[in-house]
Design goal:
Elements lengths: L2 E5 L2 H8 L6 E5 L28 E2 L5 E2 L8 H12 L3 E4 L5 H14 L5 E3 L7 H8 L7 H28 L10 H17 L4 E11 L2 E10 L2 E2 L24 H11 L5 E12 L7 H12 L3 H13 L15 H14 L43 H16 L5 E12 L2 E12 L13 H8 L13 E11 L8 H11 L7 H10 L3 E4 L2 E4 L1 H13 L6 H16 L4 H10 L4 H9 L4 H4 L1 E2 L7 E5 L2 E8 L2 E6 L11 H13 L2 E5 L6 E7 L2 E6 L10 E4 L11 H7 L4 E5 L6 E7 L2 E7 L5 E5 L11 H9 L15 E5 L6 E7 L2 E6 L2 E4 L11 H14 L5 H5 L5 H16 L15 H23 L6
Parallel strand pairs: 1-2, 1-5, 5-6
Antiparallel strand pairs: 3-4, 7-8, 7-13, 8-9, 8-12, 10-11, 11-12, 14-15, 16-17, 17-18, 18-19, 20-21, 21-22, 22-23, 24-25, 25-26, 26-27, 28-29, 29-30, 30-31
Helix pairs in contact: 3-5, 5-16, 5-17, 5-18, 6-15, 8-13, 9-11, 9-14, 25-26
């Protein structure tokens, strides 16, 4: 007698095996085993002729979904069926959320078991939790399955109906999605606000006062009992004081005159107020709040946070990481309070256990917050974790423990001082009892240091005291535009608006970046010109689909389907096939959408048109000579494009590049240009005899206007040969690359050893001795410790027996076996990546052998992974130097350059064509 237990992942299976008797066999489904077809190849021959087949949903037959077993899952399904033959009982132990319930239902439909079936659920992978779950099995919740199926169908209908429209009207390869498009619109709206923003300036005074050898700051707040203007008094759209505000706006001259008038005059304390404040700890983490805090504290993206959390959960360190709930079980509360008692003492324990309730109406995932697993919490030091795994567990542990700690008691102090008719204010904060802040401070890794930073101690003062003024200065200020969204703030906004589910935010943000709708720069999500064009089209012709309120109501309806309060079929019929349904709207609007207009982005104060083309955004302007087009550098954002930049780019296109001077040795002219990848310098002109002039990118952060002739001559010497390595005799060079300056020890076939050049070292002046010193240092692992711990363990290679794992690298996730590394496709989920997929990917990489030519790349169309590799190789080749790829800025383009461009285009189309067949997941 044996029992077959099916979970989603191999890691979870390995962990659970340790907690079950030998009569239990635990296998992994590797995520979903059945889904809607993702490409034409997966559509069964029997229905390929049907007009709805590409959609994967028969909209004419009650929206019946067409489910298929993907090619890479057929082996897994066979293995599960074989395992079931020897079992006397089947336990479906997938996650207890809608996705997990759906996976169990699909397994049931495929396996068709003839033995007793149980549905086992748990929120943590510990011996106690698994044994308890075995005694409390239940049936599959069909209402939850129906809600998830409706969501899947709805997302397919939106993605597969709108995306082809975007291909026709704007650019090939774009995608639209139920939640994705709303999120993109939020980014675009914020960028529009930044463009519309008008800066305002104001001045005030700041004093350094002293009483009893204790110094404190004081800021000017009134003059003649009239409030002095600050940033909150300005209208962002005009840069002027908001109409109706009675405030005094000081300019520099007035501020300095006031300073002179009150300089050396006596100061008097006129008022003092002390206000006690009590702060309560934040509730334990939900999926959304974990993503937000990990982004703020650890600088982790949402996808990376979820990958690490998934790994921690499957290895038994934390509870289930996809949850909307802040609830803690009695067991967890007791464990947290025990930690507080042992580590901080009874005075830091909250008098009564804190019980948190989830406020959001739609909360429906796992029934407990994210917390350390088990009935006793291991401290971070006791886990044996290291690197980013340790830091994320530490964050979860601290937040959970702090939630059961005493309130923090503080006293906020406000002191008013007067000098002549000028009123100043000083603010202080005294922490009377730190309470939970001893364990956890928002945004800080070191609670003790953060407590010190939070305190602002003022001297003992009373009304009538006369502090001394040690320093007094006039300070100018400028108002700042609205901040761009970070991953944390976008997640917070989506959750507050009720758009999408928190468990999907990581994949949504990843899709937005992968599809080219936004760039993640310095932790800010910056929308591209393509995002502007797509958002404008959807706002104009399909306003409901990008309206946060409409999308939120859709989410509520899906929740109601899960609880039986709403019927799924009438809802889908009204949404898609009704008089105002999506299919009807697209059919009516398609003929009304002018592709030329759709590809044009309208920006205030820009006379030229911004258009979306095959190779990115470009400017288009009419002049006396006709139509002029000029590429827009890829790092230039819509909010930062101003009339001066437009004028320069068009002038460069019409009149040729700006000449710096002549090379002192060759006498050739040296130019400064701006290309698709930013500014660069060029030696000589493009001609029949000099089709590829020497070019060099400017170092990152260098403005084109600051480039001198000497600097340009030095840059054109790159790569610099520094000399020979004393041990190998191989050359040592300094150069600029895609990721900045570096030195390299080039040993030919043996390999190349690189080190990044960091300030104060300079690529133009670094010596051989300094380069050898850098090369002698151990090479840092890519992305710090990211490669040390696998994102996912897939299992052993069937031939070599070596483990195959997925790691996080500089270019994203990759699978590794021995000496072979192969990157995952951009739209490939690590969570759903299987051993079979890895074997196929590694085989393809090994078969490809060394770096292939453009011709080889062009023909690489067999799988999405191969086409993704082709695109990456093409992109890398294009970016080797910013200058090399920039042919569009020349007056003439050589035939050879055109051929290269065509090859690049073909390779990119091959990659994009495969990707665009794939559905936009839940977005």
């Amino acid at each position: 007698m044996s029992t077959l237990v099916i979970v989603e992942s191999p890691t979870k299976a390995r962990t659970i095996r340790n907690f079950l008797p030998s009569t239990y066999r635990v296998e992994a489904s590797m995520g979903h085993v059945r889904d809607l077809p993702s490409s034409a190849e997966e559509i069964p021959e029997a229905v390929k002729g049907e007009k709805w087949a590409q959609l994967g949903v028969n909209v004419e037959a009650d929206f019946e979904p067409l489910y298929v077993i993907p090619k890479d899952k057929k082996k897994i399904v066979k293995e599960l069926k074989d395992a079931l033959k020897d079992a006397t009982e089947l336990i479906l132990a997938t996650d207890e959320d809608r996705e997990g319930e759906s996976i169990s239902w699909h397994l049931l439909q495929i396996l068709k078991p003839k033995v007793p079936i149980k549905r086992m659920v748990f929120h943590e992978i510990t011996r106690e939790a698994i044994r308890d779950a075995l005694t409390h099995c239940r049936d599959i919740d069909n209402r939850v399955v129906q809600a998830q199926e409706t969501r899947r169908i709805l997302d397919r209908l939106v993605g597969y109906t709108l995306s082809p429209l975007l291909w026709k009207k704007i650019a090939w390869g774009l995608s639209a999605g139920r939640v994705q498009s709303v999120a993109v619109r939020l980014l675009v709206r914020r960028e529009r606000e930044r463009r519309a923003f008008r800066q305002g300036s104001y001045w005030d005074l700041k004093a350094l006062l002293e009483k009893g050898k204790i110094s404190f700051d004081a800021k000017l707040v009134t003059v003649g009992n009239v409030k002095v203007a600050n940033g909150s008094d300005f209208d962002e759209n005009t840069g002027q004081i908001i109409s109706g505000r009675r405030v005094l706006l000081l300019n520099e001259e007035q501020a300095r005159a006031l300073l002179s008038r009150i300089q050396n005059k006596p100061w008097t304390v006129t008022n003092l107020e002390e206000r006690p404040v009590t702060r309560k700890p934040s509730p334990p983490f939900t999926t959304s709040t974990l993503q937000q805090e990990a982004n703020r504290k650890l600088r982790l993206g949402a996808r990376e946070t979820m990958r690490i959390a998934q790994s921690l959960y499957e290895r038994g360190f934390i509870t289930y990481m996809r949850t909307d709930s802040v609830h803690l079980s009695e067991q967890a509360i007791e464990a947290a309070r025990s930690c507080v008692q042992e580590l901080y003492g009874s005075e830091y324990l909250s008098p009564q256990p804190r019980k948190y309730t989830t406020k959001s109406k739609g909360a429906q995932e796992a029934h407990e917050a994210i917390r350390p697993a088990g009935s006793t919490f291991r401290t971070p030091q006791q886990t044996g974790l290291d690197g980013i795994d340790f830091r994320l567990y530490d964050l979860i542990w601290k937040r959970t423990v702090a939630s059961q700690m005493a309130d923090s008691r503080q006293t906020h102090v406000t002191v008013q001082t007067q000098v002549e008719d000028a009123g100043f204010r000083s603010s202080g904060k005294r922490i009377d009892f730190p309470g939970f802040l001893r364990a956890y401070v928002e945004g800080s890794d070191d609670p003790d240091a953060a407590l010190e930073d939070q305190e602002v101690i003022l001297p003992a003062l009373k009304v009538g005291d006369k502090p001394n003024c040690k320093d007094l200065g006039a300070i100018g200020h400028e108002t700042q535009p609205p901040a761009r969204y970070t991953e944390a703030s976008l997640v917070k906004m989506l959750e507050s608006e009720g758009v999408g589910r928190p468990s999907t935010y990581a994949s949504i943000i990843g899709t937005i970046v992968d599809r080219g709708y936004a760039k993640l720069i310095a932790n800010a999500l910056i929308p591209t010109f393509t995002a502007f064009a797509v958002t404008t089209l959807l706002e104009t012709h399909f306003p409901d689909l990008v309206d946060t309120g409409f999308t939120s109501r859709m989410e509520q309806t899906l929740d109601e389907i899960a609880t039986g309060e709403a019927k799924w079929l009438p809802y889908l019929q009204k949404f898609y096939t009704g008089e105002t349904g999506l299919a009807t709207q697209v059919k009516e609007q398609e003929s009304q959408i002018d592709a030329k207009v759709a590809r044009t982005v309208v920006l205030e104060n820009i006379s030229a048109k911004v258009c979306i083309g095959k190779f990115g955004a470009y400017l288009e302007s009419e002049n006396e000579e006709g139509l002029v087009k000029a590429s827009i550098p890829q790092d230039l954002t819509p909010a930062d494009l101003d009339p001066d930049q437009v004028e320069f780019l068009l002038k460069q296109k019409m009149e040729g590049p700006e000449k710096l001077g002549l090379h002192p040795e060759t006498g050739e002219p040296i130019y400064v240009l701006i290309g698709s990848y930013g500014p660069y310098v060029q030696l000589g002109d493009v001609s029949e005899t000099n089709k590829k002039p020497k070019r060099a990118s400017l170092p990152k952060g260098t403005d084109k206007d600051s480039v001198t002739l000497d600097m340009a001559v030095s840059l054109l010497t790159l790569p610099r040969l520094l000399g020979s390595h004393p041990e190998t005799g191989a050359k040592v060079q300094a150069n600029l690359g895609m990721y900045g300056p570096y030195v390299v020890h080039d040993q030919g076939k043996v390999g190349k050893d690189y080190r990044s050049i960091k300030p104060p070292d300079d690529v133009l002046t670094i010596t051989l001795d300094r380069a050898l010193e850098m090369l002698a240092q151990p090479k840092a692992a890519r992305g710090s410790s990211k490669t040390a711990t696998p994102l996912k363990e897939l299992g052993a290679h069937p031939e070599s027996g070596e483990l195959i794992n997925v790691y996080d690298g500089r270019y994203g996730p990759y699978v590794k076996h021995g000496d072979i590394n192969a990157s995952l496709a951009k739209d490939e989920s690590v969570e759903n990546f299987t051993l079979q997929k890895a074997l196929d990917l590694l085989a393809a990489k090994e078969a490809a052998g060394p770096k292939t030519s453009s011709k080889s790349k062009k023909s690489t169309k067999t799988t999405a992974a191969k086409s993704e590799t082709a695109e990456k190789k093409t992109t890398t080749a294009k970016k080797t130097t910013a200058a090399k790829s920039e042919t569009a800025v020349k007056k003439t383009t050589s035939a050879k350059s055109e051929t290269a461009a065509k090859k690049t285009t073909t390779a990119k189309k091959a990659a994009t064509a495969t990707k665009t067949k794939k559905e936009t997941k839940s977005s």
